[in-house]
TrEMBL record:
Keyword Signal set for record: yes
Domain of life assignment: Eukaryota
One Pfam family in the UniProt entry: HsbA
Leader peptide range in chain numbering: 1-18
Keywords for the protein's UniProt record, in alphabetical order: Signal
Protein name per the record: Chitinase 18-18
Length: 179
């Protein structure tokens, strides 16, 4: 019950300020851009037919979007409780999109093996994992409120976990190009 009150309070703050801040918040824009690029990667993943190029291009776009987000985050001052509240909704949407993408990637592992593209997926996921973790950690470390950081952590930990699980799907012992 003690946890529910702060979460309700943060949700109220978030709902009140999100409409005002989100359009002007560069971090919210970056998170929304990452979500959009993940949507494109998901479309490419679902459409995978042995031609790796659309998936590589979409993955490269996600990587570039995250790297741009890293530059924006690096130049952003510390994030107040009020600003962090405005990030909650974009982070929740990103978390949900990442879950959908993971399920879709998981469903294509056998097709990727048959196309002998495990090494390509492994390399892209490794880069995504690295840049994704770095951006998540940078944003979390910029949040000045421990309360807000604790609210964000389950979502960021979930995204990090999905990145790790994605890498596991394509580790050398599980995804072998010589199918």
């Amino acid at each position: 019950m003690r946890f529910a009150t702060p979460v309700t309070l943060l949700a109220a703050i978030s709902g009140t300020c999100a409409m005002v801040i989100q359009r002007d918040n560069p971090l919210a824009k970056c998170i929304n851009s990452v979500t959009s690029s993940l949507n494109k990667l998901d479309v490419a993943t679902k459409s995978f037919n042995g031609d790796i190029q659309p998936v590589v291009e979409a993955a490269d776009n996600v990587i570039a979007t995250i790297q741009h987000g890293q530059m924006v985050t690096d130049s952003t001052p510390s994030i107040s409780l009020f600003s962090a509240a405005a990030l909650l909704q974009p982070v929740q949407i990103l978390d949900n999109r990442a879950k959908v993408l993971f399920v879709d990637v998981k469903g294509r592992v056998l097709d990727i093996q048959k196309a002998k593209k495990c090494d390509v997926f492994r390399a892209k996921l490794s880069t995504l994992n690295f840049v994704g973790h770095k951006l998540i950690d940078t944003i979390l470390n910029k949040i000045s409120s421990g309360f807000a950081r604790n609210i964000a952590r389950p979502f960021t930990d979930d995204i990090k976990g999905l990145l790790a699980k994605s890498l596991d799907l394509f580790e050398r012992a599980r995804c072998i190009d010589a199918y």
